Amino acid sequence: MRPVIVVHGGAWAVPDALAEVSVAGVKAATRAGNVTLMRGGGALDAVEVAVRTMEDDPAFDAGHGAVLNTDGEVELDALIMEGRTLATGAVSSVRNIANPVSLARAVMEKTNHVMLSGKGANLFAESIGVPTLPTHALVCEQERKEWEQYKNYDIGVKELFRAQWAHDTVGAVALDSCGNVASATSTGGIRYKMVGRVGDSPVIGSGGYADNRSGAVSCTGHGESILKVTLARLILSHMDRGKAACEAVERSLRYMGERVQGGGGAVAVAPTGDWTACFTTERMAWAAIHGGILHYGLNPREKFKETLK
Amino acid sequence: MLPVVVVHGGAGHIPKDRAEISYVGVKEAARAAYSILRSGGSAMDAVVEAVAMLENNPVYNAGRGSVLNVKGEVEMDALVMDGRTLASGAVSAVRRVANPIRLARLVMEKTSHLCLTAEGASQFARTMGVPEVPEESMITDYARMRWKKNLDPDTNPMECQTGKMGTVGAVAVDLEGNVACATSTGGMTNKMEGRVGDTPCVGCGGYADNHIGAVSSTGHGETIMKVTLSRLILFHMEQGKSPEEASDEALAYMKERVHGLGGVVVVDPKGVWSAHFSSLQMSWAAAQQEQLHYGLYHGEDFTEPV
């Protein structure tokens, strides 16, 4: 089995100013995940490493670089899932930690629960020695400025603004040499979200899903719409019934657009190694490594190739 | 065949002395919801009313009567979904509200979000004027007794979840053919602070789509999540399975794949319904065509006029 890793940096109208760093970020994350796979690491390790790389990169709205809620605070959501046993871990609305995806993995491995939320998630982080960071350590100058500038605008402007900036989750899926798949998703959510708002990212079947029998998916886009159609599970139900990854994702995104008027994107990999990165938003930074070739793109129908050195 | 409502009071294993009373509340809730539907009320109104009644009833693990977390506190989860638009609302790990299901509906109707959690959910409740109730008023002697018993280090972790029925929920189809679901719970006893189960997760604790049907789930939350039980049942129904076949197939899969037990109530848009479970018991009641059906053990289907 030739390993595959596919990552995304969020489906939204990525502005030109962020285009280059976003593509560089997803390429770096894919390489990091691929190194794990090449050393014989599992799919679960690979997706965690890839997502951590993007959480640490301020170009993305996850971990470092997260957006602020209405109270000017950072609340993060993450999900990780392993396709062999369907073991899953998630955190929602956890505050001020650098790598929510690793905390989600700790929920999976060290508790008998799937999801911890709010203060309970932070208490768990403390109990296993995960440090809490000051808000200014996670939020970049640009985000603070944007937040200050727009916080006084009325709701209408906020809604418009949200539509432009809302969609900046990161995620990864992988298939390892043993045929195991895994998925991980992490986000800071949307700017000016209400305190305690939970989007699709930490919700199993919506923000992501992984099952060795059908494949792995990580989603991004308008969270509330993704939840309404349980996008990750929907994509896999098409793959279960024999659709290619690309067709399954396209069909599900089209359905989401028609039924609940939501835009988004997803990366997916099948147990056969068939993979895809698709979106209905203006842009989505994505990258994949399969068989020694690095694939990447940002604009619709863009697919560049590089041979790995 | 329309309208129809099916209510459950949780799947699990309950002692004999508490079995009898678990029928009473679900029958009352099904009757109340059915009367709303018959007078032209919406499926959404009916399921929310049925679940709110069960939350108010201390016999069930939702609202008053909820199980306690490891610290001896009440944290609740709830979800509603409207099959016409797929609009949904949820709250998770929320404290000190009498009816989490009504708060979930407010999230759906008054915010641009779908789920609010923990302190954020409480903040939202305050801005909506939902009264904060004292924690003490939600805790029953029975819940406290079980919590204390489970703190004992010798407690068998599986055994400790028995003796208290799980989640409550309802599904309905109204006269216009709209479907809806509602699910509410206090979660699992002696859970970690902030633990969120299947109930508030769309596709796990419930799902409703006018094109397919509606489901409300109960049972072992973590395994329900791993198979996204509600959505799985509806995928089977989309492929032409009846509510009964789809429930059985999905529950069997959950048992085989992740060793989890649970139960579901399901309706399709035509009014075909089922109440199935893989656990030892599930208290349930359904109302359709002026008949009230109810049961607790496998194979039971008692009927009486509504």
TrEMBL record, chain A:
EC id: 3.4.19.5, 3.5.1.1
BP GO terms, sorted: L-asparagine catabolic process via L-aspartate; proteolysis
GO cellular component: cytoplasm
InterPro entries: ASRGL1_meta (IPR033844), Ntn_hydrolases_N (IPR029055), Peptidase_T2 (IPR000246)
Residues under site feature: Cleavage: D168, T169
CDD domains registered for this protein in UniProt: ASRGL1_like (cd04702)
Residues annotated as binding substrate: R197, V198, G199, D200, T220, G221, H222, G223
Catalytic activity: Cleavage of a beta-linked Asp residue from the N-terminus of a polypeptide; L-asparagine + H2O = L-aspartate + NH4(+)
GO molecular function: asparaginase activity; beta-aspartyl-peptidase activity
Source taxon at top rank: Eukaryota
Active site residues of this protein: T169
Keywords (A to Z) from UniProt: Autocatalytic cleavage, Hydrolase, Protease
Stored Pfam families: Asparaginase_2 (PF01112)
Similarity annotation: Belongs to the Ntn-hydrolase family.
Protein name per Swiss-Prot or TrEMBL: Isoaspartyl peptidase/L-asparaginase
Species this protein is from: Electrophorus electricus (Electric eel)
Taxon lineage: Eukaryota, Metazoa, Chordata, Craniata, Vertebrata
Automatic annotation (TrEMBL), chain B:
UniProt organism field: Electrophorus electricus (Electric eel)
Stored PANTHER family: ISOASPARTYL PEPTIDASE_L-ASPARAGINASE, L-ASPARAGINASE
Gene3D superfamilies reported for this sequence: (Glycosyl)asparaginase (3.60.20.30)
Pfam families: Asparaginase_2 (PF01112)
GO cellular component: cytoplasm
Family of this protein: Belongs to the Ntn-hydrolase family.
GO terms, biological process: L-asparagine catabolic process via L-aspartate; proteolysis
Enzyme class: hydrolase
EC number per UniProt: 3.4.19.5, 3.5.1.1
Catalytic activity: L-asparagine + H2O = L-aspartate + NH4(+); Cleavage of a beta-linked Asp residue from the N-terminus of a polypeptide
Sorted UniProt keywords: Autocatalytic cleavage, Hydrolase, Protease
Molecular function (Gene Ontology), one example: beta-aspartyl-peptidase activity
Site feature (Cleavage) residues: G166, T167
Residue numbers annotated as active site: T167
Binding residues for substrate: R195, V196, G197, D198, T218, G219, H220, G221
Protein name per the record: Isoaspartyl peptidase/L-asparaginase
